[in-house]
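Dear all,

This email documents one entry for the complex benchmark we are building for the journal club exercise. For each entry we list the sequence lines for every component of the assembly. Then comes the predicted three-dimensional structure of the complex as a token string, followed by one or two observations. Please use this as the template for your own entries, and keep the labels exactly as they appear.
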Amino acid sequence: MADFEPQLTKRFNVKDGHTLKGYLATGGYESLKKLFTMKPTEVIEEVKASNLKGRGGAGFPTGMKWSFVPQNTGKPIYLAVNADEGEPGTFTDRYMLFNDPHLLLEGIICACFAINSHTAYIYVRGEFYEQIQRLNAAIDEAKKANYLGKNIQGSGFDLEIYVHRGAGAYICGEETGLLESLEGKPGKPRIKPPFPAVVGLFGCPTIINNVKTLCSVPWIIANGAKAYAALGTQESPGTHVFGLSGHVNQTGYWEMPFGMPFMDFLNNYGKGVKGGKLKAVIPGGSSCPVLTAQECEDLTLSYESMKAHGTMFGTGCGIIMNEHTDMAKVLKNLTHFYSHESCGQCTPCREGTAWEDRLLKKILNGEATAKELDLMLEVADNMEGKTICVLSSALAMPVRSFLKKFRGDFEKYLVKNTVAVPEKVQ
Amino acid sequence: MKVEFKPEVKKEFEAIAARYPVRRAALLPALWLAQREFGFISTEALKATADLVGCSPAQAMETASFYTMYQKQKPGKYHLQFCQTISCLLNGAEDVRAAVEKKLNLKDGQTTADGQFSLQGVECLASCHTAPCMRINDEYHENLTVEKINQIIDELKAK
Ligand SMILES: Cc1cc2nc3c(=O)[nH]c(=O)nc-3n(C[C@H](O)[C@H](O)[C@H](O)COP(=O)(O)O)c2cc1C
Ligand code: SF4
Ligand code: FES
């Protein structure tokens, strides 16, 4: 792997790296010097030129998203930071928040300066109690040292950042569900358009960005888009914190530039598959279509390679399954998850996720025939493209890929003999 | 029984409410305060919260009921929240949970008669690389095994 300088994890092993003192001693808040010499539009252009893509799952280009904010509405503009991290298999934002909270604050300052926002809310999932404490402590420190508040470092730019604690609902990670939750309501996603960049929080223009997206920005400002784009691949520039869980000998997370062959990542960093040969990989959180071992052979850690393999980069955290894994049971776990987490607004999602769960239960109980397997596919078809948000597709895609690629694991549960019950013999 | 927020908690809340342009937006933080002060979100606590925020009890109820971390019944002194999602499942979460159910004679959603332990199955806790995992109150416990969970419970019992 090419040499690179860690950007996101460089303070993970620095003692007191999470405090202002430790942060400043390791180059913290350096990007602001350059930031405040730039115009907001120049910041947006720089981030566009870096081709940074959103790390929350959808991979939308960050600079472009920022450019959608209308600057002439006369309303305040908000930034909402997505720290709801709830996608099954995903666990790295948690460490960003804990080990380097000031880096997130610095990224927020850059983003807010670019979009002309003076208030940011960090939406943190309710379970992250320690992370919330660290964030609040970092905000207090930054305020005292005038990295937040009025006229930051004499720049004339004002910014307040507040932490908002979630309370246990996966759907609040969906950007408009998150906004509803920030407004004190149930986290039920909104119909788009209007897009939040135009009508978002409290009816005002709002940008929603993931934690790692924002943590990537200070380096881009300090070192320039060119240096960032020189890392990784053309379509996937920069570095990311990649993760591995499931059946791996060494689970964990590692920062590196995009583009490493997936099997090298699994074998060299994950130290190989635990308990047998590789059977399947869900590459970027549970909503991504599953891949077979064979499909992983020429896979690389990049947006474009995942797409070419019919799946998604997602969050960059892979779930590994060995040859002894019963894929029917794994899918049952997912149908349960999505039916539990559906917010219930859309019929195809509310009924579809629950129906998939019931059908699979029937199959696992040995009470189903091939008809039920086909019905699962039919239900999946009816769950996509007809709903307010993509949670519904996030189950439909796994259902289709599991059944297509691992049908045998499901067929073994089917009632084999459909022969009529023999007539009673006297 | 009517419950009321202490004056200092009301003050704490006002500082939080000032962060938002709309008071209703402070409903989630208000419910967190209610849970901290009254132990769980009872009907009375909901009414007090609605009063504090200035929304209707129905609005407070609608929001409280949507989120799984607001406890609608009094949880045990030690509230065990087991991750039951995919990476934990792949690493033996079912065995760990069965061991706890057996040891405490508890099922999902129940609390022991002495009020010490309650059990709740939860979804992915974002600690998938240290599976199986759970939270006890606000603390994470990771890389669990049947042995380890039995030991943790014995230690809590002895406290
Ligand atoms: C059901 C659902 C759950 C989501 N959960 C998260 C999450 O926990 N964290 C996150 O950053 N994005 C999550 N997203 C993606 C967000 O909707 C949004 O695309 C993202 O926060 C935008 O930030 P980015 O452009 O920086 O990636 C979720 C999306 C859906 C549909
Ligand atoms: S698709 Fe599902 S989760 Fe999304 S808004 Fe509709 S019902 Fe809610
Ligand atoms: S699956 Fe258990 S913590 Fe993510």
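Observations: Chain A has a mean pLDDT of 96. Residues A 88; B 83, 85-88, 124-128, 131, 133 surround FE2/S2 (inorganic) cluster (ligand 3) (CB under 6 Å).
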